[in-house]
Amino acid sequence: MSRTYTISELANEFAVTPRTLRFYESRGILGPDRVGQRRVYSERDRVRLRLALRGRRLGFSVEDCKEIIEMYNPIVGNESDQLEYLLAKISDHRAVLEDKQRDIEATIAAMDEIESLCRAHLEERSRVV
């Protein structure tokens, strides 16, 4: 019999709240069995949660995470398709982040310029008074 997990065990293991697990369940990423009112998570759920959290840390949407996770089918052997799709998503997201990084760098440069002008103006005023 394979290992099962309670909502508290998974929440503690991955440092998330039970609400987070219920959220991923509502999005179809997790599919715990029910024993009365209790959720019983399988090893499959545990792996899917780990992958979803990793995808979220990379900045992917929950929908992207789900799509990538669901592409995996060991019977069909489509791991190459899954990996190519993941690489494309990483490339797209990297481009977005690099654009944001350039915008942030430009904003910081503009702030530096304005800050320098303000300091120069204050220094000039203090010499006049």
Helices and strands, with pairings:
Elements: H1 7-14, H2 18-26, E1 33-35, E2 38-40, H3 43-57, H4 62-71, H5 79-128
Antiparallel strand pairs: 1-2
Helix pairs in contact: 3-4, 4-5
Write a compact overview of the structure shown.
The protein is built from five helices and two strands. The chain is mainly alpha-helical. It has a domain of 71 residues: Multidrug-efflux Transporter Regulator, Chain: A, Domain 2, CATH 1.10.1660.10.
Do you know the CATH architecture of the domain at 1-71?
Orthogonal Bundle
CATH topology of the domain at 1-71: Multidrug-efflux Transporter Regulator, Chain: A, Domain 2
Percent of residues in helices comes to over 70%
The description of the largest β-sheet is: 2 strands, antiparallel
Please describe what this structure looks like:
By secondary structure, the protein is mainly alpha-helical. It has a domain at 1-71: Multidrug-efflux Transporter Regulator, Chain: A, Domain 2. It is built from five helices and two strands; from the N terminus they run H-H-E-E-H-H-H. It has a two-stranded antiparallel ribbon. Helix 3 crosses helix 4 and helix 4 runs antiparallel to helix 5. The protein is elongated, with a radius of gyration of 24 Å. The chain starts with 6 loop residues before the first helix and ends with a helix.
